[in-house]
Amino acid sequence: MQPAVRRARLGHDTLAYDPRWAYGVPARPESALAWVQHALAHLTPGGHAALLLPPATAGRASERRVRAELVRSGALRAVIALPAGASVPLHVGLQVWVLQRPEPGGPARESVLFVDTAADVAGPVATAGCAGTVPSAGLLSQWKQREEDAAGIERPEGALPVTPRAGLRALRRPYFAARSYFTMDEERAATGDDAVTYAAPEWRDRVRTLNAEVLRALGYDAKPGTLTVVRAEQSYEVTVAHAEKDLVALDCGWSPEPDDALAPDGAGRLLDEVRLDGQHTITTGSKLASFLFACEDAPRYVLLLVGGVVLLADRAAWGEGRYLAVSLDRVLERNGTKAGGELDTVAALFGADSLRTPEEGGENPLATLLDKSTKHAVGVSSELRDGLRLSVELIANESWTGCARPASARRRSRNSPSWAAG
């Protein structure tokens, strides 16, 4: 089963006490673990299920308690990482989660089987959206040369950083200085009281200033202003943090959590709403990104700036519910400055050197990289594809057999060897 995990509106408020959430209430912006618990709730004790899920499900901070309970209870039996190209979307390596509903009085399960089939397939140097990616050696070499050339040369005040990674490394101190203001009154802000956030001029100014510093650190000459866009022969004025060919940056609220970038009642709200007519207003960054992608001469990328988070929306993938988000808060705190490390990866994925359209025309470097990644994914060997397909079919058949088998038969086979034994 491959659930529609990006359908985030599950009626969170009305389903908060749903009996299916035996392992914890799923996070509001994401629905992957809601589907996991839905599947478990419909199994008989001892029954199996296999779900095809995005890799972010295994690492999203907002869902760690639910994951921990799934492991602690023995409901999660195995996680199988598939190589990119094994299933759509082709450029992302999905995961098969094998589940088993615990049996009352059954044996304790203290381990989970992890299988990484992706490690057996050589892939491109970087693939956007996958954890653990590294920037290409060519880009690192360019940055090293530019930094060496600029060493010892006095730069004018206000100049952009030599490279996006140099900008991120220099951002650490001013970021945490600005962050202290937002965390002082976190408890009151968390109640949704606009008086201390969106309705407070000082808070709004500080968010804009921090977002502008993030943009400049990534190599963009942040120029806030008004962008005129056309949709269905109607013109609209959109307030932007920055705009250039094929890229628009928008100011949202402040949060250190990537999930909050899409929260419609929290940090995902725009600082400047867009009034379409007397009855309709766009209030969130995610909805404005969708609106911009549907306009004439639509940008390729939209950056949602959320203080401690940057979210990259790509027009080619946004409609499928796919995007890339990073918590600058955590990245800057870990301060991974080694070559090819975490800071370099963020700079390579979100920086101007990767997203900016070349003056001479053609695709930007990140779009070119993704195109190569997709072509490589399509080229995964037919033998491996067939093997993975057969494995998924076996898992599904075992799950169906387990559900259909009488309870007495399941009890007899409870201690027999299993393909998912940890």
Name the descriptors:
single chain, 422 residues, alpha+beta, Rossmann fold, 2 domains, five-stranded mixed β-sheet, four-stranded mixed β-sheet, 14 helices, 36% helix, globular, disordered C terminus
At a glance:
The protein has 422 residues and is of the alpha+beta class. The chain has 14 helices and 13 strands. The strands form 4 sheets. It has a 5-stranded mixed β-sheet with strand order 7-8-11-12-13.
Explained architecture:
This protein is of the alpha+beta class and 422 residues long. The protein folds into two domains: 32-121 and 380-412, Vaccinia Virus protein VP39 (Rossmann fold); 137-375, no CATH class. The strands form four sheets. The chain has a five-stranded mixed β-sheet with strand order 7-8-11-12-13. The protein has a four-stranded mixed β-sheet with strand order 1-3-2-4. It has helices spanning 32-41, 64-73, 137-150, 164-184, 186-190, 201-217, 285-293, 315-318, 328-334, 342-350, 352-355, 365-378, 382-404, 407-412, and strands at residues 48-53, 76-81, 95-100, 113-116, 225-231, 234-240, 242-244, 247-255, 269-275, 281-284, 301-307, 309-314, 324-327.
